[in-house]
Amino acid sequence: MRSAREVPGPGLKVKRGGQGQGPDVVRILHISDTHSLHRSTGNMPDADILIHSGDVAKVGSEGELGDFNHWLGGLKGKYKHILVISGNHDFWDTNWRLNRGHISNEVAQDPAYFQYKLTNARVLNHDLAEVMGLKIWGAGWHPRRGDSRSGNNYADMPAGVDIVVTHEAPYGIFDLTGGGHWGSSGQLLDAIYRTKPKVHLFGHIHEQRGHWDKAGSRYFGGVEYRPNPHSGQVFRPNGPPPANYPVEVESNNAMANQPSVDHSWTGVWAPQHLVGRPRVIIARKQPDGWHFASEARYIGPERRGILGIKELFGVEAVDESDLGLASKYLGRCDSDTGGIWLLLDACQN
Was domain 5-294 assigned CATH 3.60.21.10? Predict the structure, then answer.
């Protein structure tokens, strides 16, 4: 199979010369809310596309953004494409300077304002990027907004995209905080139902970090954030999206901890640090288009079978019928140990 021929320019549009060209499997790495702790991510997993869904910085100062941009430059040899959107924290310093007249509204409202600062990535600001055969649309935060609402109404979100990247959550999905639903958008939820993307990547709500993967008409996964690292209890677990929700992978990967939430559980104030890991999402080309799933986690033979399904999918009760429902995610790839992997595509020989 011949490789895709890329159009000159920003290196993001893929031109197909005929049927059958282009990759059949694409690896996407999702990170978010690193808050200037990007150098603590270690050796991140290999992927074709790296996507950061906002809050790259603590306050968005020139020094913070400059260091993040330099870090991205060092990743160019590892990832074919790097896409970024802005988060609320990325505009704190800008808003401070706006309120004191140090910069003008015209400068801060320039659609390319964030792109000027991050020259080693493609910044999506209500933009569509066509990457390796995938259509990826992103919209980040805006200046002069608070921390709970981005200022987007998402009326411009186009139909037919594969991946949508935002910083805020769709209302009712991974948005439960100590004060109820926060940092989410009903307009975003409506736009997702209208445009039907297959993947939605976001962050913002740290204590709701987690993912949902769709198999058939059911979702598996849930909240992963544990305020007390010594406990298995997650923060405010909540149910999956309804069966008619169109997204195959919903990923909130806000990687930094939420110190105030952790303190309320443990009584200990600790500096902000990364507790989440980069999330790999596999795109696989099928006859009816692209389909997506989160990459596997391995379970050993002692936790295999129904117990392993419970652990991996986060559901309360699993019976034998669920094994058939999840069969497309299972592969017995480790013949030496008898362990299993979730997601056949993630098996390594």
Answer: yes
